[in-house]
Fold:
Amino acid sequence: MQQRPRILDVGCGHRKATDSIGIDVRRYPGVDIVHDLEVFPWPLESDRFDLVICSHIIEHIHNVPRFLKEIHRLCTDGADVRIDTPHFSSLDSWTDPSHRQHLALHSFDFFVADGYLNNGAVFEVVQATLTFRKALTSRLGALLFRWSPRRYEQNLAYLLPARDIKVALRAVKGPLASRR
Structure:
């Protein structure tokens, strides 16, 4: 019998993922651990989780490198980390005054093996993509993004804004992580 993945939902709010442990700064129904996510370490044991979900939380965090280092500590080697956050061109990124970060598609590249912000917490970027709204201009933005993600972000993002960034990371521990 295959063991179920151990899942952590960071900043889960009132929509905690099924079969996960939820940690949030507020006491919502379903939150298992109430803890300030800016205070490290979190009250969880190291190397415990196979999947960590961070849906619309990283943009609220003051110190993203420290936040990701804590996520890395909690991950098993090879654990999946899924991050959803508003794209910097999205009005959603700027509307909420509690948002401290406005991130781009390649913001997470700084946390790979040769990334200078990884501070020993190494991730592999498995996939990074943008989502778009359903309006005609958004569909045009999505088409141009598929043509050239770099050109889209550099030249067209504010004209034809994206909605969210969806990033899949993999925690790397061991020899690759220590090559720094």
